[in-house]
Specification:
By secondary structure, this protein is an alpha+beta fold. The chain is 49% helix and 17% strand. It starts with 6 loop residues before the first helix and ends in a 9-residue tail after the last strand.
Length: 193
């Protein structure tokens, strides 16, 4: 036989059912939060790996750009040094002190070339410098030429890359830079040759 519950008992059962429903909702919310936290932890590991891959490619690109920029800077510096030495050579001058030549014209041209190369050329690699004369009436008394002769200054420089990233792409890890310029000597007195 069915008995009707007392009025207080029914409201108590409803309260317990409501609390149970609320606890189930909180439990579901906590489960979702825990699952999201687990996903974020695995996402941060994936992000770190992606960053490492992208950063390494980016840094490779940056260092390659720096290396090639310095390569072009070196070439421009050497071309300027050759041009300045040629401008000095055509005048028939020599390095002098108190009005007398302390160096031959050839050595004076080499010194001008080394001074304007900002340290790229020096006594250690002066064998990479070639000064040649073509006789155009001055008789080419030496490699620096006489009045009216054509003087050609050529520099071959072995560029060493700043980083080891680009070096394996070139023979011996170096890139040869060759610059030259030709000038006609001015009509200076032949005794200055």
């Amino acid at each position: 036989m069915y008995q009707m519950p007392a009025a207080g008992t029914q409201s108590r059962k409803t309260d317990i059912a409501n609390q149970l429903s609320h606890l189930r909702q909180e439990r579901a919310t906590l489960d979702r939060v825990a699952m999201n936290l687990g996903e974020k932890a695995s996402d941060s590991g994936q992000t770190l790996i992606e960053f490492a891959l992208v950063a390494s490619v980016f840094l490779l690109l940056i260092f390659s750009v720096i290396d090639f920029a310095y390569l072009f800077y070196t070439r421009a510096t050497l071309q300027n040094a050759v041009r300045q030495a040629g401008r000095y050579a055509i005048t028939g001058q020599c390095v002098n002190k108190n009005g007398t030549c302390t160096l031959t014209r050839y050595k004076s041209i080499i010194q001008t070339l080394e001074n304007t190369s900002i340290g790229l050329l020096n006594d250690a690699n002066s064998s990479d410098i070639v000064i040649a004369c073509t006789n155009n009436g001055g008789g080419c008394p030496n490699q620096a030429g006489g009045p009216g002769d054509t003087v050609t200054i050529t520099v071959t420089y072995q560029y060493k890359f700043l980083t080891g990233l680009m070096a394996p792409l070139f023979t011996g890890g170096q890139y040869p830079i060759k610059v030259s310029a030709s000038f006609n000597n001015e009509p200076f007195p032949p005794g200055q040759s």
